[in-house]
Design brief:
84 residues; mainly alpha; initiation factor; Eukaryotic translation initiation factor 3 subunit F; protein biosynthesis
């Protein structure tokens, strides 16, 4: 609450309830977007960007790198995660 009050320039001497401070903060930061939504949007944006290119990132993302065999359970690929 101290940080919120400082952001809103509310003195500790003013008698403003915590509910009022929360209401003012919500009004100040509208429109509110969930963090998980932002991460998903950025992930899809990067995926689209790399699939249109022909660089190293696309090669790694599509698991077409030559190399030895892995042991253990197969990891979830980027494309599987994007499809979800």
């Amino acid at each position: 609450m101290r940080c919120y009050r400082r952001l809103l320039s509310i003195s500790h001497k003013e008698h403003i309830t915590n509910e009022e401070v929360r209401r003012r903060i919500e009004n100040a930061i509208r429109p509110h977007v969930d963090l998980l939504t932002i991460v998903q949007q950025r992930k899809l944006k990067w995926y689209g960007h790399t699939t249109r290119s022909s660089g190293l990132a696309k090669t790694i993302m599509q698991c077409t790198v030559n190399g030895g065999r892995r042991r253990g359970r197969q990891k979830k690929s980027w494309e599987d995660n994007i499809k979800e």
